[in-house]
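Budget justification, computational time. The allocation requested in the original proposal was used primarily to generate structure tokens for proteins on the priority list. As evidence of use, we reproduce two of the resulting records. The first is shown immediately below.
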Amino acid sequence: MDYFVLRFDHGYRKKDILALSKLSGKVLRKWSGRLISAFGLLVALFLLIPGVFRLCTEGLGAEQAFWTVLGVGMLALTFFKARLNAWGARRQAIRVENLTMKFSDEGLTESSDKATVLAPYSAMERLMHYRGCYFLFVDRLHAYILPEDRFVVGDSADFRTFIEAKTGKTVEYI
């Protein structure tokens, strides 16, 4: 018996993958990654502030423009890191049509026009809810994305108690 069914006509949407990217950046990123991001922000400001100051005092020159543009570019990379990661992940993802996820007594069955995969509930390492989506992590880098508006069988409000009972893990709300 299928308790919950989700349907995706053209695979995951951009906003679903972006939510996964932001979630992993907030929760799963190691301290070293956060340190590198903070260092990148400092370097961007170090390049941008003197470049803008020299641009205002000395006028437009090639050197001032170079440092200002470099600082703006690094600042943009720092702030749009999640979007860039989501864009790269979406480009690398397999394009599928008619993706269906069914939750039964055995586990999660994911079927599309390309393949069918059965993932037992014991494979789920971590359960999270963020921005209207459930994320079922099978390891640190891979997760099933379950947007609440994609449930066609079963109520998304009842999914939390169901998945917690099947996996023995608690859904973390971020």
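The second record produced under the same allocation is shown here.
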Amino acid sequence: IRRGEVRVMATFTGQELFAEYAAMAIMMQYFLMRWARRITERAFWICGMLLLLAAVAATATRGGAIILVAGFLYVIVVGGKVVPRVQSTRVVFVAIALFYLGLGLVEPLVSHLMDRMATIGADDSSVQSRADVLQQAVDAVTRNPFIGHGIATAAGTFRGAVSLNIHNLYLTLAYTIGIPGLLFFVWFLAGLWRKGKRIFDDQLADQRTREIALALNTMLVMFLIDQIKIEYVRQPMTMHLTWLHFGFIMASWRIATKQQRIPDEVAG
């Protein structure tokens, strides 16, 4: 790993899926650290975040680092009324400062990721391969836009270095189940986002409920961004984790709705 010859993926089928999982777990552990009251609990979650940061670096996947930054920006900009912007900004500043102060120690671990971040662009072979398969998938969707080409995609379906996975969830859904299926899934995701935002924007809800909603909503945004260059449907375990996350969002919305009804019923 330190020589840049191994990109870790744990029990996932690809580095991108593992990096996405680790980045989203860092966000949840950030909120768990905020809720901790004892110094030992805070230390536990901080150590967990550091280990996950090391895992993201060891995947050498640019997407994991990008959505992690995007997630904290979302908390600062959109969730500033729930988690004070000063607190979130301070955490980001301290993390960046510690990274640079300890760069001499962690440089062997992050060098591969930094090299890949520096080479991203039109000339990058990975970007070129994915652009090629995306164009082929778009052409295939236009030939059969309503019912798609079926959920089973054989190896060698596409020409080039990437012959099986399209590396874009939204285009994958359009290709496999058609544009109507894609639109339904986007409508479903938009509903989840609205429900989460409604909770953490509700000033009548208790603080913990609002922060839980913000954490889950932020993780959803991170997921939506990362799926632009990967598709979670390629692995059953990732599909299970993703829909478990969706279920947590719905559960938090139901609990918050129930909490809002109880005072009304008591007052009545």
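A brief technical remark on that second record: The first helix runs from residue 15 to 35.
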